[in-house]
Write a structure and sequence with these properties.
alpha/beta, 2-enoyl-CoA Hydratase, Chain A, domain 1, 9 strands, 12 helices, 2 domains, 257 residues, 47% helix, three-stranded mixed sheet
Length: 257
């Protein structure tokens, strides 16, 4: 998989995507976002890939959007360009996405991290939505995903102030899953990805689907949706393998079928 602004490869059932503009602190231009989506979509349909890991090369995960690219845009041009279609499509990825972040996770970089299902941060990582200081606001889902994670009051505080948020505050607020030392960030992320890659792929997929619905559905609607996915898994070979292995006291071999 050859790209201009990212690197992508498959390592032991894990699809690895690395942002590759370290001199620009991995600032996100439109082509870069398109490449991220393309790589994720390829991994999502590749039977050999079970987990996707997203990271950034250099001292920052991503310092945000490429301001030079957008500063002369106007509303009509932005509407016709429909650049956020790629961002919307990221939410359609079915396989788990684990973000490994370090340094700066600002603006569009923060929005990209929020597109991940799990996030592991290096100690010392800082998060921020600084768009307000430029006279604008997040446009790729930042106000929505952040509010659903941390609640209205905390989201407004962070979005209005543009302040930097420590990894400890992000962990306490439920934005990230864990903090690790910088030197073991990728190692720990790949270890978690490897563990999840051994789980039954269909169950992992439908758990993600059900949890995503829980964010917006009422409890009753969510439970009905969950139940249908529960029933569906009983049509899988993995369900038969998992339960037979349990009875036979052996390790199951899940094939995602």
């Amino acid at each position: 998989m050859q790209f201009e602004f990212i690197e992508a490869a498959v390592k032991e059932k894990i699809g690895v995507i690395e942002l590759n503009r370290p001199r620009q602190l991995n600032s996100l231009n439109r082509k870069m976002v398109s490449e991220i989506l393309e790589a994720m979509q390829q991994f999502d349909t590749d039977d050999e890939v079970r987990i996707i890991v997203l990271s950034g090369k250099g001292r920052a995960f991503s310092a945000g959007a490429d301001i030079d690219e957008m500063m002369e845009d106007d509303p009509v041009a932005l509407e016709l360009m429909n650049q956020f279609a790629d961002w919307d499509a990221l939410s359609l990825i079915k396989k788990p996405i684990i973000g490994a972040v370090q340094g700066f996770v600002f603006g569009g970089g923060f929005e990209l991290a929020l597109c991940c299902d799990l996030v592991i941060a290096a100690r010392g990582t800082e998060f921020s939505f600084p768009e307000v200081n430029l006279g604008v606001m997040p446009g790729a889902g930042g106000t929505q995903r952040l509010t659903k994670l941390v609640g209205r009051a905390k989201a407004l505080e962070w979005l209005w102030s543009g302040d930097r948020i420590s990894s400890e505050s992000a962990l306490e607020s439920g934005v990230i899953n864990r903090i690790v030392e910088p030197e073991v960030l990728i190692e720990e992320t790949m270890r978690l990805a490897g563990r999840l890659a051994k789980q039954p792929p269909l169950a992992i997929r439908l758990i993600k689907d059900s949890v995503n619905k829980a964010v917006d559905y009422s409890l009753y609607e969510g439970m009905q949706y969950e139940r249908k996915n529960f029933y569906l898994l009983f049509a899988s070979q993995d369900q038969k393998e998992g339960m037979n292995a349990f009875v036979e006291k052996r390790k199951p071999e899940f094939r995602g079928k």
